[in-house]
Amino acid sequence: TTILHLDRQYASYFQYAQKTRREIHQRIGRKNVRYAKALNNLMSHYHRRGNNRFAITLLEEALVILNSIDAPQALFLQNYKNQATAYKRIGDYTRAVRFCEKSLELLLKDSVNTAVRDLAHAHNDIADICQSAGRFDQALEQYGESLRLLKDINVKDEPIAVKRKIRALHGFSRISIEKGELQKAKVYLVRAIALQKGDITYRLSFSYELQGRIWMAQGRADEALKAYQKSLALAQKYIVALLPYDHARKKFWIAQAYQALGKRTQALEICQKTLSILSPSFQSESLKDNPSPDKFLSEVLAIDLLRLKGQLLKEAYEQKGDLHWLHAAKNAYETA
Length: 336
Known about the structure:
Elements: H1 2-6, H2 10-28, H3 33-48, H4 52-68, H5 73-89, H6 93-109, H7 116-132, H8 136-149, H9 159-178, H10 182-195, H11 203-217, H12 221-238, H13 244-260, H14 264-278, H15 299-320, H16 323-335
Helix pairs in contact: 2-3, 3-4, 4-5, 5-6, 6-7, 7-8, 7-9, 8-9, 9-10, 9-11, 10-11, 11-12, 11-13, 12-13, 13-14, 13-15, 14-15, 15-16
């Protein structure tokens, strides 16, 4: 399963993950660490396919097993993090934050063996979800705590800690953009880029994405489009397994830039293709012809894309006067 996952042969991965779970169940039963790990492997498959709710069911089963045996802390941390991610994808931010806080509590209990960078990572996880939920004050507090923990790190000796610091600075920049404080957003972004000096790996792709968002907010859609495209190109080049969700999110920003430039045809095409990334069986704007909402890789992102598609179709109607476009826009909004 490990080799197949790294090689992105996901269909074969699923078959071996299923086989592993069956064999462990038959030979040594359910209440053991190996069975919990097998459930986690299966969860990765359903999570990747967008079936987040079934992934949560598997994680809950695994957590029951972990609580009934003397399981290592690392397995609890992995379970909590995966549950937080799954709940975030379906928009249940309260539960997502709860599992992130459980991870933090577990790390703090074993403070002697917990690295500062791991604590900072936990604070960043909570901050990311608070930001997605629009709780900016809480998010800023958590990002601030992450930066406080990492203030004395050595850039050369602690590359992982530097990555955590960059993530927190990106978070401050994102929230500043949301609040319309573009000068602040630039300052945080410049600090993040300074830490990435000489680094052309995937982390720089997030900096380009934020630069694009700042330019969009300033009405410079042409510059924003270039930044978004560079962000996607870097991510595709340097991330070994670019997750469909991350790919779709970057495509969403590109579609927005095309809309701002008045290139509606390109924007609509990207919206349709990106919705198909989130759910391969997605066909049209009509809900009855499509998979149920919980079959999308991210329900939250699917809603954003459908709303954008509705806006584009409505603009097409206003320009051309053809009711076909208006009906299509209505269907997209209703599906959202």
